[in-house]
Design brief:
- This protein is of the alpha/beta class.
- The protein contains 19 helices and 19 strands.
- It has one domain: TIM Barrel.
- Strands 1, 7, 10, 11, 13, 14, 15, 16 and 17 form a nine-stranded mixed β-sheet that branches. A four-stranded mixed β-sheet has the order 3-4-2-12.
- It is globular, with a radius of gyration of 24 Å.
- It starts with 10 loop residues before the first helix and ends in a 6-residue tail after the last helix.
Length: about 500
């Protein structure tokens, strides 16, 4: 049999990565690691915390009044309530909901079998190979929004992809919102650190979507952390009063370093996270029954020698699997962390820790994954190279989740066996020619060529190739279209609010 030449694929083709989609709908089964007995034990622990230990709601009398009016037992600022009542309130939250994007084709469904990837959130520093580590500024923030918009494996913009530290704290949320709303047309989050900033977020979202659309749909969400252990402060409750009473989404995430903000044992910390988040979900449903809610989990181990958080370790990996099962039984969409690492640069430590963190998040069925790309230094730093490297791997996860193992007649390739003789090869067969463009995921940044070709191309390692990639992307960036009237209205709103706000750097 005559040999045919091997089909070729250019680097430009490979650089396209996975087929762009607004989010993932998985066909892969969830990875459930807990048997019925362990599930029951953990749920009893959750109920015990809610009923007997209680959750503190601090510095917000309005929140305590709402609990009191609905029959909860209040002791100082500690709220205790029957667990079956808390669970019945949580059952009012939708199992899945859609967050509309400015470009409706990019709207995302959160919950059920859907999974949405978003970049790092909250880093004060940025790093790239050319300029090193530095404080984030508005120029870096805008570039990161542009890159997130251009990366098809990131379905959601997040919000604080880095802190623009050159803008006063009191005003920077306005510039960040404006960037998300004009430089990208993917969905994004809003501000939460003060009630007025949450209100600005909702008001600007209404300018983009219109009151009628916003009245009927989730178009923006707030992401907040409880103050673990067992404390909900006014940042959470006030943000919920802004977002949830308007029918918008709330993501509530206990941030627990086991051994510090939770017991050193993973089982106890998982139950604590469930109790804290379910308590806030119940509060949200008292504000507005049916308001969208995402139960979050950010549970990490720590070095008991230094106190530093550690990532990609077996304990937080197991917590992702456990919280996934518990969240599905509670009927609530789940948020987990993503490509997490304590490494300072994109090295082997970063690769190992990020892969283990993200892989368990993926298999656990997290419906919304913040920090899916760009995370360095325990979340203190956003890496330009790390962002595009992580996104490259997200494309492979997307293929695993959505396609699984295809056993259709064409994939069983019986015609190829008739064409290829024993000892021959399939590279030039008709089956290969039909399928070669989609048969395998081809990462944009991995180099699989022989060493001679790699050396001729400059012997660039992954970080150097990633540096080239993000620069090339920014050079070809084109902003998505936006209605000029909406853009002008946003500019006017931002200008008026900035005029009314004093500069504050804390």
């Amino acid at each position: 049999m005559a040999r045919r030449s091997r089909p070729t694929r250019s680097r430009n083709d490979a650089a396209q990565g996975p087929i762009s989609s607004p989010h993932i709908q998985r066909s892969l089964p969830f990875f459930d690691v807990l048997d019925d007995e362990k599930i029951s034990i953990l749920e009893q622990q959750v109920d015990w915390i809610l009923q007997d230990v209680g959750i503190a709601y601090r510095d917000d009398p309005v929140a305590l009044d709402l609990w009191r009016a609905n029959g909860a037992k209040i002791d100082g600022d500690i709220v205790r309530a029957p667990a079956d009542w808390i669970r019945s309130l949580c059952a009012q939250a939708p199992r899945e909901f859609t967050q509309l994007a400015r470009n409706r084709d990019r709207s995302v469904t959160i919950g059920g079998t859907h999974q949405v990837f978003a970049p790092i959130y909250g880093a004060p520093f940025v790093r790239d190979m050319d300029r090193g580590r530095r404080y984030g500024d508005i120029a870096a923030f805008q570039d990161l929004v542009r890159l997130t918009y251009m990366l098809p494996s990131l379905h959601h913009g997040g919000f604080v992809t880095c802190e623009p530290c050159d803008i006063p704290v009191s005003k920077r949320h306005l510039d960040m919102l404006y960037a998300h709303m004009t430089l990208s047309d993917k969905p994004h989050l809003g501000a939460i650190t003060e009630m007025s900033r949450a209100q600005d977020s909702v008001d600007m979202a209404e300018i983009v979507f219109g009151k009628d659309v916003m009245d009927q749909n989730c178009v923006i969400m707030g992401n907040v952390n409880t103050n673990s252990p067992l404390l909900v402060d006014k940042v959470v409750t006030e943000a919920a009063r802004v977002y949830s009473t308007r029918g918008q989404g709330m993501i509530v995430v206990p941030f627990i370093l086991s051994g510090a903000m939770g017991p050193v044992s993973t089982a106890a910390s998982v139950a604590q996270a469930m109790a804290e988040a379910m308590s806030v979900c119940a509060y949200v449903q008292m504000l507005r029954p049916g308001a969208p809610f995402v139960l979050g989990n950010f549970l990490s181990s720590m070095s008991l020698k230094s106190g530093a958080p550690t990532f990609g370790m077996p304990e937080p990996v197991m917590s992702n699997y456990a919280i996934g099962q518990l969240a599905r039984r509670a009927g609530l969409p789940l948020r987990c962390g993503g490509s997490l690492t304590a490494s300072k640069v994109e090295d082997a430590q970063a690769a190992y820790e990020s892969a283990d963190s993200m892989h368990s998040t993926m298999l656990a069925g997290a419906n919304y994954v913040l920090h899916a790309a760009g995370w360095l230094e325990g979340g203190l730093c956003t890496g330009y190279e790390k962002l595009v490297m992580d996104a490259d791997r997200l494309g492979s996860y997307q293929k695993i989740l959505t396609q699984g193992l295809d056993t259709s007649p064409d994939m069983l390739a019986r015609d190829a066996y008739a064409e290829v003789a024993p000892g021959g090869h399939f590279l030039g067969s008709a089956h290969t020619m039909r399928n070669y463009q989609t048969a395998f995921y081809e990462p944009a940044l991995s180099n699989s060529e022989n060493v001679e070709s790699w050396e001729e191309s400059g012997s660039l390692d992954m970080r150097a190739r990633a540096c080239q990639r993000w620069k090339s992307m920014l050079q070809t960036y084109e902003p998505p279209p936006i209605d000029p009237a909406i853009e002008e209205a946003l500019q006017t709103f931002v200008a008026k609010r900035k005029e009314a706000l004093p500069d504050a750097w804390y």
